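User: Please predict the structure of the protein below. I'd like the answer in structure-token form so I can feed it into my own downstream comparison script.

Assistant: Understood. Taking the following sequence of 305 residues as input:
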Amino acid sequence: MSSQMIRRAEAGTTEAPWVRYTLIGITLIFLFLFLVLPLAAVFAEALRKGFDAYWEALKEPDAWSAIRLTLITALIAVPLNLVFGIAAAWCIAKYEFRGKSILTTLVDLPFSVSPVVAGLVYVLMFGAQGWFGPWLQEHDIKIIFAVPGIVLATVFVTFPFIARELIPLMQAQGNEEEQAAIVLGATGWQTFWYVTLPNIKWGLIYGVILCNARAMGEFGAVSVVSGHIRGQTNTMPLHVEILYNEYQSVAAFAVASLLALLALVTLVIKSVAEWRHEREMKAIGDLSPENVKSTPLDLSLKAVS
């Protein structure tokens, strides 16, 4: 067999090299036109009048309020979804019960429902004319057109991300290691902390990164429940919309560039996590029986004891 055929067999394809190069070229062109070029345009427009104008747009009180509210919302929504995601994934992957398929479908619900519809649902429930509106007004509790409503809407649209990363991972891993730990005397909490959590840590990191990125960039649901009150209930995406509608394009693109920068940082963190995961998997794959004295489960059980 020729070396060319061997390379094709290793790649899992029999197409000629020009096919591979054509596909790579199409992919690169698509990424440049629809990702790199628009992203570069955002930063170019933001800096069109110089760095001083860019910095002034970010220092403006309403912009700073939007930045602060975006970060606060993410800091609340992501930990809540972290707890829910782990609990939902554990329940779906480790147990068999009636209604399991329904629970799995409900986890995917925010992916199929428009964020605007989700915002309208919260208005229907907690608005002045909603189901709980009179009671909330009577007790002077504000949810719609206030920070709690923004947090609730953000939690709704982001809660599938962590669960969806963990469910297939836990299902693929099975229950053998947890069962072994319990047989050897580990408690439920020790089994989770020393056996389950190390096995799912990379999926958990990916889910948290994606959840955080969506929480900071959410527009539709937040737009419905926020009321667009400048300096109070505007997140960064809403503030960008207001500035652009007022023809303050440089200020709008300045705040948009900050959102894009946060997205790039998120991608860098995700890439680093994937790189470390690949290194860890490669290190585990390189271990041979003759030079391995302890398996990962053995190490976990030593920590438990």
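That's the full token string. The chain is about 80% helix and 0% strand.
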